[in-house]
Design a protein that fits this description.
The structure holds 2 protein chains of 2 kinds. By secondary structure, chain A is α/β, with parallel strands linked by helices. Chain A has 11 helices and 9 strands. In chain A, α1 crosses α2, α3 packs across α4 and α5 crosses α6. Classes of the chains: A alpha/beta, B mainly alpha. At the A-B interface, α7, α8 and β7 of A face α1, α2, α3 and α5 of B.
Chain lengths: ~350, ~140
Amino acid sequence: MVADRTLVPLSETVTVRQTVGYAVQSGLEDADSLEVHLVVALPYDAEVPEGKQQVEEAKQLLSKARRWVTEDAGSADVTVETAVLGTERYLFGPRDYADIFEEYTDDHDLDRVVLDPEYHPGVTSSILQPLEHELESAGIPYDEAAVERPARHERLVGEGTERFDRYFALFWISFGFYLVLGDPTYWFDLVTGVAVAGIVSFSLANVTFSFPLHRIGSPVRTIRFAFYVPYLIWEIVKANVAISFVILRPSMPIEPVVTRVNARVRSGLPLLALANSITLTPGTLTVRANDQRLIVHTLIPSAREDLFDGALERAVRFVFHGRTSARIPSPRERGDAEIVGGDEL
Amino acid sequence: MIEAARFWAIVVLVVAGLFFTFVSAVGVIRLPDIYARAHTASQTDTLGAGLALAAVALALGWQQASVYTVLLLFFVFITNPTAAHAIARSAAETGIEPVTADSAADGDTREPSTASTDRNSSDDDGGSDVDGGETA
């Protein structure tokens, strides 16, 4: 009988141990020998600061999983290969993960993929198709590992303190906003404010924050954002003046060009902040955001140069990750910026 | 003295806001296609409305209503890029090809391809050829 060749993507989940066990067991059921490829796909580039730590963690997980496989295989003929994928690119949505798995299965001529049911790589949002769907459309046969897992009662609700943090944060945000609109010195507004903020935080806290809050990190981010706003306004003023000169000149020396910039900011709020800042600055306009690949229409050469220098990107990284991670090469230096034709849209 | 300074600051802000709104209107007329026009349309929202609202806040002085103008500005800054992006994206999805530096040279050959997809866009492109003639 032919050997079964299986790909098992791993991540630190509660069911990762059982998934490895299932892959070995089910593989050996219908074949004499088994070749298991254990892989960890990393969302970040290995070069950025947060990437190095992830590579370390991935390697530890892989060596653990390798021991599990030999443990489960017993005397059967099982070969194990391990790999860390995605170190040279920026994985974002399930589609990127499906692509990278497809590439790997093609390269190594693998038959099937065993998925951990708890494996949710990258960003999962209701807008994006889940990994299973993406694998199906890529034509890769996959198998969901039969595992026993603790039932999850409420998906969106976190653990005790985390939940409290959300209610707490949203309560004070909405209370503050209410008092800005009302009168902070009038007792009636204070009382109704508490009531309204209570209702808002109770009903919407789980929807508002799609990510866990950090008790120090989140306020610090807010303060850094306060520094970012004047900088953004200054950039907007500069760009407005530059565009106004170009428009008012009789010869109108515009040079419209469609460019692609691979932004190195996390998806969600950081990406939204960057894409919106790019659009707010006249001269650059985000036409599409295919995950991290931003298609930006630029109107004048100076705006394009600014975009390729990545000042806004660094500022957004500063807001969300601090000063050290703001020191990254510009999109031009790392080859993430290019001019593309209009048909790329 | 301070009143006079405030008066002139308000005048300067309003005039500057008017200037950028005017530039934006000129840009919408002069620029060749929908993508380029989206750039300049956002000028009205950012600096045009921004400076006018700053003038309003200054004119109202230190009271509750001037806080509202700052809030207004904040919301404009959130909604403006969203709207600009939505317009550009829907244009891209309708298949309108942007006029680029390369294609501006052979502007007349471009027209048949876009004319079928969107009547408005072909009208816009008609205007661009006139402008393109000026630049060439």
